[in-house]
Every structure is written in C-alpha cells, then in structure tokens.
Amino acid sequence: MSAPRRNGLPSSCEPCRKSKLRCDHTLPVCQRCVAHRRQQQCTYHPCPLTKGRPRRALVRSNQDRRPSNPGDDDVSPNNEAFDWVEKTPSVPARRFEPKPAGNRDKSFSPLGFLGPTSHATVFGDDALDGGSQLSLLGDINTEAVDSTMVEIGAQILSLLDHLPFYTELLEKRFDLFEGWIFGPQLVRETLLNLRMLYHGVVQDSSAHNRHSCLLEGSRMVFRNTVATIETDPAMTLSEYVSQTTPRWETVGLIFALVGTATYQIASGAAVLTRDGLPGKDIHGLRRTAVAVSDMCLQFCNKIGVISDPLCWTALQHTVFMIDMHGSNDYRTWQRQGEVVSLVFALGLHQQTANERTPFFLSEIRSRTMVAAYSMDKELATFLGRPPRICQQYCDLRFPLDISWEDLVADASIRETAIQQLNPDGWNMQGDPDKGARPRLTLLASILREMILELSLSRDVENLWNRVEKVRLESNQIRLRLPPFLRWSPSNTHPLAASVRLEFLYQDFLLYQTVARKTGEISDPLIDTSQNILAGLLDLVSRQSRTGPVSHLTIFDFSYIGLPAAAVLSKELLRRSQSSANQSTSGTSFPRSKIIQNLSVFAAQIETFFPCREGDYDTCMKGLAYIRRVLDSVLSACACAVSGQPADETRAVEGGSSGNGDMNFMTLFDNFDWEQEIRPLFT
C-alpha cells in the first residue's frame, strides 16, 4: 500500500511501475505479479519516486584504495547487492549483547523447553527457569524488524477494514461446527479486540495520512509481538486476549480461520457470493488469507519469538494448507513439521503444573497438543511416513469433557461442571456436544500410532497375532466409551455414528496392512469394507432427511468411504472374472447389494465433494476407476443375459480396455488407495 498519486489514483506496485504495466492495486499482492510468479517482489513503495542519498562510501580517494582484509567490515564498496542475506530469518540482525537480568523479559527463550538431558542442566536447577535460559542462551531479536516488514505489516492491517465480513463468515462457520481447539468465545473476543485495535489506528487518519497511521500501527504490533504475555491463575479470557490480540501471530490466526471457513461453508452461500469480497471472489479471498497468515508466521520466525498464539496459528495454518494444497503436498508436510517443533519448544508434550497459568489456557494447551498429535498421525498415515511425535516421549493429557462456556466461566461454575464428570472423565449428562470430540480424537490417534508401527515395520513375523492384539485393544477402548457415544439403532447421533466409523476404519487399516504385506485380501477386510460403506450411506440418508449433511460427514464419506469402496470394487471385478462367478472365500459377498451401494456411493461422493483444491483430483481419479469397474461388471451381466460378450468384458479378459488404455487389475494393484486422512480437527 502506498500514498495516492497527485491525480488521486493509487500507486502501482514496484514491478508493475518499473515495467510500465497496468497494476490492479490488489492487496497484499497484485494479480499481475501472481500470474508472473513475482509475489516476493510485489511491494507498494510509500513514495515510489524518491531515492536515497548517495552513499559516501562509494566515493573514495586513492589513498583509501587498499587491499581488503578478511576482517574488514566493508568487503565491497557497494553492500546493496547483499541485502537479501539480512532478510533471511536465520541470520541475526546484530551480535548479542547481554542485558542486565533485572531488565529482561520473562518470555519464552528462543530455544524454548529444555528437557533433563539438556546441556543447560549442568548449571543446576536454576538454569532451567526462563530468565536464566535467556541470560545463558540468547535474546529475542528485537532489532530484526526492518522497513520492509513494517510496510508489509501496514498492508496487512489495512485488510482489517473488512473485519465485519470476517466476523459474519466465522459466525456462519460456528453455526456448522464450533470447533474444539479454538472455541467461539476465544475467536469472538479476539475479533472484538482487533476491531478496537484497528479503529484506534485509523480513527484520526485522513486520506493523505492513513498510510502513515497504518505504518505506526504496524510498528506497535511488532513491539507487542516481542513483549511478554503475563499470566496469573485468576486471569479471565478477556484479560488474556487483550494481551494476545495486538500480536502478529493472533492476526495470522484470524486469517487462517477465515481461509479454512471458506472450505467448511458451502461455496454457494450468500456470505461467499456477495460483491466486494476481499480479493474480489472466494479464490482471491483464500489467496489473501493464506498470504497473510503465512506472512505473520514469517514475522515471528524473523523475530525469533515463540508463544501459545504462535502455535495456534501454525496449527490452523496447516489445516488451511491441507484444504488448499492437499495432504500430499510438500508444503503441508513442512508446515506440520513446524507445528511439531513448536509444541516441543513450548513444552506442551511435558505439561507440568504452573501456578501462574489460568485454567482455560492450560486446557487449550492440552487440546492443542492433542490436535498436533492427531494431525501428525493423520499425515503419517496418509503419506506412509514415520510419525514425528511418539507417545512414549509425551505426557498426553485427556482434555476435559466440558463445554466452552464452562471452560471460560468463573471458578464456581467451572468446578460444578467438573464435578459432573464420571471417574473416566466423561460428562454424566450424556451430551456428546460438550467436550467429547478432543478426547475421542486422542483415543483414535493412540490407536493409529499402534497401526503405523505395524504398517511401517519391515517385520512380518507373527503379523496376524500382532494385528489381533491391536484390534483387541481397539475393541476394549470402544466398549469403555459411555453409552451416548456408542452407536446403536436407538442412538443415531452424528458423533456416535462417526465414532463407529472411526473404529471400523481402524480395523480396515489393520486388515489392509495384512493384505499389503501378504498380497491377499482377507475376508475380514471385505466384511469391514461393506460395513463402512453401508454405515456411511445410512448416515447420509438420515442427515438428508432432517437437513443438510454435516461437513464432517462429507469428509468421512470421502476419506473413509473411498478406500473401502476401492477394496469392494477390486473384489467385485475379481469375482466377475472368475469362472461361473465362484469363489473359495467363505465370506458373504452380496453382489447385487454391493453393486447398488457402490453406485449410490459414486453418485453421492461427486455431489458432496465439489470441485476444489487439495485432494480433489486424487479422489476424482479413484471415483473414475470405481465407475469403470461398475460399467464393466454391469455390461458383463447384461451380455450374459443376452448371450453376447460385451466390449468391456472382452477388454477386461484381454487385459486392456477397448481403447487400449486400461488394465483393471494392474490399475488397482498400482493405484494408491490410502486416502486415509480424517481432518478431525478442522
């Protein structure tokens, strides 16, 4: 953003101005620079036609011209060519000079949590407190902020002019799903404080000095970002949010939530189709949101600060990246690694009692750790890679099964809610919408780590025994759940149905591991796949009769249903090719019912999973394969009645399609059906 020109028109960005091209003045990056992949260079200079004073170092007398030594400060007469080095987050802006201990902030050390094997333990127990860590190991880089960062920060603050729209969008999202990491109370309080912050920055500004006010506001946010977040046990949520709001990580969190909400709300909703959207349309809004949240994370990385809100932003930004780029994109994997680094640096994996931590913050930290642990297991399963967080090194604490209202309420109300929990920690009112989801997520993630240990291991000895051991543990966990979370014909709550699908899916992954290691599809795998597909179709049917289908059910439909449908399609094709359609398998294989369920599944998944970014292409590719199998099988049935072989039947028997482009058995053997991620935390 720059000052307007004399004719009143806005100034162009630097690449467009220097190239003499028309600029559309879009913030934070113009669309021409996006099209030419010049996002990093797209900046709006506050005074484009001004130049800096010539540096006196460029004019030297003959007597100053002497051979340079390695220790000289000025190696080159022109240092401008190397300015990019100072822009990288890993390069310190200055040499550290220790401050007196009495003037130090008590915020997190740049190294964060230090465990029992840390080299700092040689200094004794006193070396492990925050102040000693700072005095021994470094300081937050408060001089890393340059004019470019301040300018970008001003552009980001200008986007807060659309706060009423962001608030409306997030309220629509809360109508669908409150979320169990960042509840409505936390987000609403943050939006309220951001509105006051923005009004305080621009309230006395005019058209000609508005940018100057935004620049000063950007500097103020940078100062607050490196400041200490003071806490005490009696602190309320409002008092805590008033400290965390004027920080870049909190601004990034709101934009990450906004971007994620555009995937959770129907794309045809009125709030997303109106005129004047930030970024012009929903796609521009998503690009703007991901750019802002990413830039806010870079600000904190450049400064070297770590905090709870920074971990929240990194977590939500990774969820946003999953929606935008897909689970198999390297950027998603990289961002998830940063989340893991933050939870370890903050010590969330080894939570200890802290007298200065308010109750709601301690509970949010537990939920944040559960979300990071769950995301790690989901991506590791989806990509077939080792998980980054291991349970044996973590003190995983189950979140409380209480509502967000009770979580942030006064101590008396909170204690009353806690007393209404049973010895296992579940609420005794039988309400599945209170705080059951994070507890269920942790249980499922612990089981998933056991499955990953089996799936990624090279050892195949006693495989069935180990699989049955994990499956027995899964059944015991399921049976210990309270009745309101166990699905039955009389309990059809969406969460209970989702829990049933989750445990079926765990069994599916176990049997799929056996099939992959032995090369044989077992009867339990086929039975489990049938139960998954039938359960999903029943769940969708029930929800369709009472209202719109939940977006969580849609994700289950895509990521659980597709692998199960693939197994059934492959088995259906194999049996169709066998002589007289006979099989030695002892499992029940109701052929007509499976064909019917696969047909309904194929029709509904295309409806519920509209064209979008992320893993859409992979899911549509798998769906196309399933439909080709159905066409071949049904054509073979029709020709069997008429006595004439179909083209598709001859193609399958000959090993290729009529166009010579498909071998079904080879295709199913080689295609990666492990679309196993379930974004429980979105």
UniProtKB/TrEMBL annotation:
Keyword tags: DNA-binding, Metal-binding, Nucleus, Transcription, Transcription regulation
SUPFAM superfamilies noted in UniProt: Zn2/Cys6 DNA-binding domain
Entry's Gene Ontology BP terms: DNA-templated transcription; positive regulation of metabolic process
UniProt keyword annotation of Metal-binding present: yes
SMART domains with a match to the protein in the record: Fungal_trans, GAL4
Record keyword Repeat present: no
CDD domains per the UniProt record, alphabetical: fungal_TF_MHR (cd12148), GAL4 (cd00067)
Record's compositionally biased regions (Basic and acidic residues): 94-107
Gene3D superfamilies linked to this entry: Zn(2)-C6 fungal-type DNA-binding domain
UniProt xrefs under Pfam families: Fungal_trans, Zn_clus
Subcellular location, record wording: Nucleus
Annotated stretches, region: Disordered: 55-110
GO terms for cellular component: nucleus
One GO MF term: DNA-binding transcription factor activity, RNA polymerase II-specific
Zn(2)-C6 fungal-type domain mapped to chain residues: 12-44
PANTHER family assigned to the protein according to its UniProt record, in alphabetical order: UNCHARACTERIZED TRANSCRIPTIONAL REGULATORY PROTEIN (PTHR31001), ZN(II)2CYS6 TRANSCRIPTION FACTOR (EUROFUNG) (PTHR31001:SF53)
Annotated protein name in UniProt: Putative Zn(II)2Cys6 transcription factor
The species this protein was found in: Aspergillus taichungensis
